[in-house]
């Protein structure tokens, strides 16, 4: 899952999205950096993970670690073995929520508030499966404070239609990228690690032409559950449709890594909510964990309700990484197979064009050694990064200087992008 394992391991124009402003120096706490979208290329990195399960020597290491843990123990500060790492940062994995940007952008094309909230629920339920390539549960890199990740998507305009009226794409995984800006929408994404203790990540994406944006902050809190690790996703996101003046507040499910001594696998669990105060529509989504005996895995159910009239307008059931069936109050039904939805590859700048705190650049040596299978060298590179973070944290404490994120500002209990679409002139 895109967010599995949350464990330790100002300008008038938007500078982070490459608008026409003077470049900003790339130094810590200097403020937003210039990111040129024309430098971005289609991502070709393979997200597949080797599914060998836990090797015998690795099992002994995990057993030793487990022997020192207690049930319910907070794992935030526990150092986990490097061989369980997935070769990407948690910040990049959040971008996988946007693997179907055509469905996200289609929400604002809904003709009525009812159609828009149903489109959002359809998008939400299809957003999780792309976070995992294969069934094996691995842990993404825990972002370093100040780490950022930037990318974008080009979405052909003829693919952005309300889901219930959209024509089907041919079955397949990779959708060709439209390069002509006159025939495509640009969806831009930035994520940043704004806090180390507690570990808080923020991400923001926007499409200016569709006047749509999403702002999310997530605090990952993990605990030991015997043969499982559970990760709670504390925080919320807000989808804003500026054309309609609507805000949809949503939460995220918990993630679990099961069977950590054999072949670890991922499941989602818990009840999440989606609500729009302006229209009175809300949705409840339940991710069902597998019963101890029997039962299916990856089950999800959902119900969309118009609260002023207490009317259920849509129900859904199925598997979040498989087939989902939607039933509308008109009696119409629709089946969405997440495995055949077109996937739009991210566009990302090559390493030589990235700043020192951008995820792929920051973690490139760890990634390189993991690909080579040199776990000791990967562990050493990871240790150096984390030790540097600790040294800098001690310096800030001695100077009584709080960390200042580049792209997000704390507002109450949440975090907001510094120049969001709803504040743009």
UniProtKB/TrEMBL annotation:
<dbReference type="InterPro" id="IPR018494">
    <property type="entry name" value="Oxysterol-bd_CS"/>
</dbReference>
<dbReference type="InterPro" id="IPR000648">
    <property type="entry name" value="Oxysterol-bd"/>
</dbReference>
<keyword id="KW-0597">Phosphoprotein</keyword>
<protein>
    <recommendedName>
        <fullName>Oxysterol-binding protein</fullName>
    </recommendedName>
</protein>
<comment type="similarity">
    <text>Belongs to the OSBP family.</text>
</comment>
<dbReference type="GO" id="GO:0008289">
    <property type="term" value="F:lipid binding"/>
</dbReference>
<keyword id="KW-0445">Lipid transport</keyword>
<dbReference type="Pfam" id="PF01237">
    <property type="entry name" value="Oxysterol_BP"/>
</dbReference>
<keyword id="KW-0813">Transport</keyword>
<feature type="region of interest" description="Disordered">
    <location>
        <begin position="14"/>
        <end position="51"/>
    </location>
</feature>
<feature type="compositionally biased region" description="Acidic residues">
    <location>
        <begin position="36"/>
        <end position="51"/>
    </location>
</feature>
<dbReference type="GO" id="GO:0006869">
    <property type="term" value="P:lipid transport"/>
</dbReference>
<keyword id="KW-0446">Lipid-binding</keyword>
<dbReference type="InterPro" id="IPR037239">
    <property type="entry name" value="OSBP_sf"/>
</dbReference>
């Amino acid at each position: 899952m895109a967010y599995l394992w949350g464990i330790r391991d100002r300008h008038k124009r938007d500078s982070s999205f490459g608008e026409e402003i003077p470049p900003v120096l790339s130094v810590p706490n200097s403020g937003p950096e210039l990111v040129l979208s024309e430098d971005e290329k289609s991502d070709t990195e393979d997200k597949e993970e080797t599914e060998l399960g836990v090797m015998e020597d690795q099992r002994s290491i995990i057993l030793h670690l487990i022997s020192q843990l207690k049930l319910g123990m907070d794992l935030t500060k526990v150092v986990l073995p490097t061989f369980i790492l997935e070769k990407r940062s948690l910040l990049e994995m959040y971008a996988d929520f946007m693997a179907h940007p055509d469905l996200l952008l289609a929400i604002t094309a809904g003709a009525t508030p009812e159609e828009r909230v149903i489109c959002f629920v359809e998008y939400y339920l299809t957003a999780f499966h792309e976070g995992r390539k294969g069934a094996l549960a691995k842990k993404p890199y825990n972002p370093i404070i100040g780490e950022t990740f930037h990318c974008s998507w080009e979405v052909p305009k003829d693919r952005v239609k309300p889901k219930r009226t959209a024509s089907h794409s041919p079955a397949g995984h990779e959708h060709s990228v439209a390069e002509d800006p006159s025939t495509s929408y640009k969806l831009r994404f930035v994520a940043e690690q704004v806090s180390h203790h507690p570990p808080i990540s923020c991400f923001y994406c926007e499409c200016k032409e569709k006047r749509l944006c999403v702002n999310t902050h997530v605090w990952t809190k993990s605990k030991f559950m015997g043969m499982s690790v559970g990760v709670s996703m504390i925080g919320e996101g807000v989808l804003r449709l500026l054309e309609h003046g609507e805000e949809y507040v949503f939460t995220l499910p918990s993630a679990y890594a099961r069977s950590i001594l054999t072949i670890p696998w991922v499941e989602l669990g818990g009840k999440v909510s989606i609500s729009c105060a302006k229209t009175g529509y809300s949705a409840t989504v339940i991710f069902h964990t597998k019963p101890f005996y029997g039962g299916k895995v990856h089950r999800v159910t959902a119900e969309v309700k118009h609260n002023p009239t207490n009317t259920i307008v849509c129900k859904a059931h199925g598997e979040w990484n498989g087939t989902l069936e939607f039933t509308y109050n008109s009696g119409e039904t629709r089946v969405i197979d997440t495995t055949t939805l077109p996937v739009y590859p991210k566009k990302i700048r090559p390493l030589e064009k990235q700043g020192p705190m951008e995820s792929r650049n920051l973690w490139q040596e760890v990634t390189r050694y993991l690909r080579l299978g040199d776990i000791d060298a990967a562990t050493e590179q990871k240790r150096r990064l984390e030790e540097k973070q600790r040294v800098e944290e001690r310096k800030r404490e001695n100077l009584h200087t709080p960390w200042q994120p580049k792209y997000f500002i704390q507002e109450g209990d949440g975090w907001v992008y510094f120049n969001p679409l709803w504040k743009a002139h």
